[in-house]
Amino acid sequence: MSDNKKKNFEVKCVNCQEKFLYYDSEFRPFCSERCKLVDLGQWFQGGYSIATKEPLNEEDINVIEKALIEKLEGEGDE
Ligand SMILES: [Zn+2]
């Protein structure tokens, strides 16, 4: 059986370049929710100053989440 090979498919996170098992992450192509939020935050915020390699802290994530939610909720309302 070659199903195991599929499950061990290893990719690099598009954000932090860490390797992770593709089918292990529900946030693929990111390794984690954090990386997903960083990436979304970058395209959404544009100039938002998270272009550093530093990991986000909870506060940063909350800011990004709030902004994303506001954008999503704002769409289609008018
Ligand atoms: Zn990552």
Descriptive terms for the model:
78 residues, mainly alpha, Erythroid Transcription Factor GATA-1, Chain A, two-stranded antiparallel sheet, 3 helices, 2 strands, binds zinc ion
Explain how this protein is built.
There is one protein chain. The chain has helices at 3-7, 33-45, 58-74; strands at 10-12, 19-21. It has 78 residues and is mainly α. It has one domain: Erythroid Transcription Factor GATA-1, Chain A. The longest helix has 17 residues, at 58-74. It is elongated. The model has no long low-confidence stretch (mean pLDDT 77). Residues 13, 15-16, 18, 30-32, 35 line the site of zinc ion.
The molecules bound to the chains, other than polymers, are: zinc ion
**Major sheet description:** 2 strands, antiparallel
The fraction of residues assigned to DSSP E strands is: 5-15%
Can you list the strand order of the major beta sheet?
1-2
What's the CATH class, please? Answer: Alpha Beta
Count the helices. How many?
A: 3
Helix/sheet category? mainly alpha
Task: Kindly identify the CATH topology.
Answer: Erythroid Transcription Factor GATA-1, Chain A
In total, the number of domains comes to 1
Order of helices and strands: HEEHH
Mean pLDDT: 77
Using the 3D structure, state the CATH architecture: 2-Layer Sandwich
Q: Calculate the terminal CA-CA distance, rounded to whole Å.
A: 53 Å
Cα-based radius of gyration, to the nearest Å: 15 Å
Number of E strands: 2
Low-pLDDT segments, ≥5 res: none
Shape: elongated
Percent in helix:
40-55%
